[in-house]
Amino acid sequence: MFDYGMFKFSSKEEVIEKSIAYWNPGKTKFWRDAGIDLVIDKREGYVIHDMDGKRLIDLHINGGTFNFGHRNAELIDTLKTALDHFDIGNHWFPSVARTALAEALVKVCPGFDYAFFAPGGAEAVDVAIKSARYATQRRKIVSIIKGYHGHSGLSVATGDARFSKIFLSDRPEEFIHVPFNDLTAMERALSSRDIAAVILETIPATYGFPMPHDGYNQSVKALCERYGALYIADEVQTGLLRTGEMWGWQSYGVQPDIFVNAKGISGGIYPFAVTMLTKRTGAWMEEDGAAHISTSGGAEPGCFVALKVLEILQRPEVRANVHYLTRYFGDAFRDMIQNDGDVVVGLRQKGVVMGVEFAHPEGAVHASRALYENGVWAIFSSLDKRVLQFKPGVLMSSTLAEEVVDRFRVALPRMRELISQAPSVRAAA
Amino acid sequence: MATETAKLNFSSHSDTHGAMLDRARWAATTFARYDPVATLKIAKAVAQAAHSQAARYAEWAVKETGFGVVEHKRLKNELCSLGIFDTYKDTDWTGPAIDGDRRLVRIGRPAGVILALTPSTNPVATVFFKTILALLTRNAIVICPHPAAKACCADAADLLAAEAVKAGAPDGVIQVVREPSIPVIEGLMGDERVDLVVATGGPAVVRAAYRSGTPALGVGPGNGPVYVDSSADLTAAAARIVESKSFDNSILCTNESVVLAEKGIANQLLDTLRTAGAHLCSPSEREKLRAFLWNDKGFNVDAIGKDASIIARACGFTIASNAKVLLVPIDRLLPEEHFTREKLCPVLGFAPVGGVDEAIRAARSMTRKSGGGHSAAIHSQNETTIMAYAAAVPALRTVVNAPCSQGAAGFGTNLGPTMTIGTGFMGGSALGENLTPASLMNWSSIAYPTDERLPFGNFEGLTPWKTPSSTVSVPAQPARSAPAPHELALLREQIRSLVREELKSALGRT
């Protein structure tokens, strides 16, 4: 019996059955069929436990949502304390918490003037697009093929057709897609001079973290300037020290006109997102500050959590930890590529943003399962199944990092086995 | 204008110390693979930086804590920086050490993350000392200073940390707890991310270190008896005792507590002590001193490390301007006599004894409650007496014909120069020697069968952590700029002459 006070389940099977019945049949069945029968129960730090008690080290961290681990004690204390005094608040009025957080954010975002808050990344991306359209008085948005910016009205149109067509929400006339790392295609799109903005994940996450070619981001920014478009950086997965700098765009030496952050800034405990704007890109707030309303955007308890997130990230120890993790995993994968090159062929890495490349076109799906069986949870890239998203959080200790590598090595024979049984191998052969 | 502000306390939980320990773990893991050349380069750079700031931190420590004498603290800072480096730099703390005859190979294994508690009495000298020992043995160190000396210690630790990284050490190899408190210290000591606690402080802290469950080297308090027999050079003995007792105003726990004078020479010794700079207290002065030095809570902290004249003034009497020590005759060598206890100030008990047997009994009585396993001194030419005394007093080091403060701490003797004196099992410690680099590491041994028909391997030139298939590069290390031999020799000579000169001036006529 699993008794959670407000509800009870007799078994994990019961949860899965009812989840299919009442929550989301497709999603629930997908994982069951993939051999990953996970219902997350207890969680602490970078470790999650299945209802069965199975222990897993979390390298998925939901795109950085759990950058600080699960139920980070400092963040929980912060939220609990904030709730002694605050609630979501009234979005119409200025607030102490929103003002304090906005000021703190502007201080750590050189070149930006305003912080606009949303409850999630998709809405923050919508705000970014709206701001760009207002500032340029142009409608069109360029994004990359297999980019990912969320699922709301505007953001979903920037992404893969898989998520827009099903809902008849693709808008090819307004949203143009060009290949990543292709400056010629980018320039061709921009040269029509009717583009409001290019939106780019600093490193495309759902695409499996293909690394931008040297100077790509800077060149895109230069092209934007040449053709009167704005540059929006989607920093949802690359912000908050994950690339080694506070913001990924700082790692690549590019100054966006707008950027978006979400997931990690919630500390994994209070939904939160932010769109950072300049005087120019935030100008619509002078004309009509209520042109975009978000009742729970900038909810005050979340502001406290976000402030604490920023404080933790500015500790020298945390920065040092990221640099050590970066080097440690870089070395470990170089070694595996050398010794187990039939399975693992490459590592895409910027800080603790990593994509592990497999020889097999669906290698990451099998790797994900083999790792799951060996106590590590890491998800494949849904838009490139050759690449495993490998995302340790910034506070991961050396001991846990070592355990991750140990488990990865132990899982290698199982990866080999699963890959050899995969139908696509025979098809490819 | 708001009439009421939210009184929300967000400081209840902060995991900065956990983050420090994680950072130290990375540093320790990385540092453990450094070779001797890179390791020595770092230790040397740090020792030089420490040495260059010895005077500044001496002044700062006295100002912050109110304990001790600037000039003597400067000397200790110098000895605990380049002096320590010079003492240990030629020893191999890394390995592999190949012993073909015994068919053994030893590979150095650093402790890892060391939590170093440093006292208020010898604050910066202990920071220097423990840091340099930790660096020589490739450990990461987290310094937790006594709250009364936190500012000077944190500043010194920051300086050393910056120098270490500049010389190629891994980031985070030296860190400091900026806001130490009892809960913080207890939390850190019990944290499983700490490999070794090295506790220098009061008995409570030392016991807490051992209770923490983390391997610990704690050292107990001292209470040094000094026996002077009729074979001693009394003038020299008196001069050494006064020099020792006034050195940093007795703040080293190796200082003499009570003079046990053989009856036949007791009066003569009193005279020579007075000539050497001791003020002989009258019975009424003795009682005033007693009232000032001991209260319900124990020893009066205000007296620690203060000049003799300041203490006398606080007691309501004056002493000659050149008097450096307050000499207090006592007649009962029993624990209830306050003056038989440890006194970290220039107050020295004095009692005549019948001979070495009575001196031993008195010494044992003095240290029965506290001070066991620490230090003792003797001034004698008689080897039988010296041997019997050293074997019977509860001290793990007996200094002969030398000032005990300095000599037992390894300055001017061949004991390991130290700010951390192991008091051994009789003093509630796992450490019996003066803390040396060897205390901060283990050795992994490769052992072959003694049967010589089985060949012993050739391990020359192998890098311990490199496996045949390993692609992992040796951690980023500075360019191998090993100092040229003549440069090292020159440095060594400079340090030796410095140490000689300092000792000569500090120890007077030894």
From TrEMBL, chain A:
The keyword Transport does not apply. SUPFAM superfamilies: PLP-dependent transferases. It comes from the Bacteria. One of its GO terms (molecular function) is pyridoxal phosphate binding. InterPro entries: Aminotrans_3 (IPR005814), Aminotrans_3_PPA_site (IPR049704), Class-III_PLP-dep_AT (IPR050103), PyrdxlP-dep_Trfase (IPR015424), PyrdxlP-dep_Trfase_major (IPR015421), PyrdxlP-dep_Trfase_small (IPR015422). The keyword Lyase does not apply. CDD domains: OAT_like (cd00610). It holds the Pfam family Aminotran_3. Its cofactor is pyridoxal 5'-phosphate. Keywords: Aminotransferase, Pyridoxal phosphate, Transferase. Belongs to the class-III pyridoxal-phosphate-dependent aminotransferase family. PANTHER family: ACETYLORNITHINE AMINOTRANSFERASE, MITOCHONDRIAL, AMINOTRANSFERASE CLASS III. This is Acetylornithine/succinyldiaminopimelate/putresci ne aminotransferase. It comes from Mesorhizobium tianshanense.
From TrEMBL, chain B:
It comes from the Bacteria. Pfam families: Aldedh. Residues 18-276 form the Aldehyde dehydrogenase domain. This is Acyl-CoA reductase-like NAD-dependent aldehyde dehydrogenase. Keywords: Oxidoreductase. One of its GO terms (molecular function) is oxidoreductase activity, acting on the aldehyde or oxo group of donors, NAD or NADP as acceptor. InterPro entries: Ald_DH/histidinol_DH (IPR016161), Ald_DH_C (IPR016163), Ald_DH_N (IPR016162), Aldehyde_DH_dom (IPR015590).
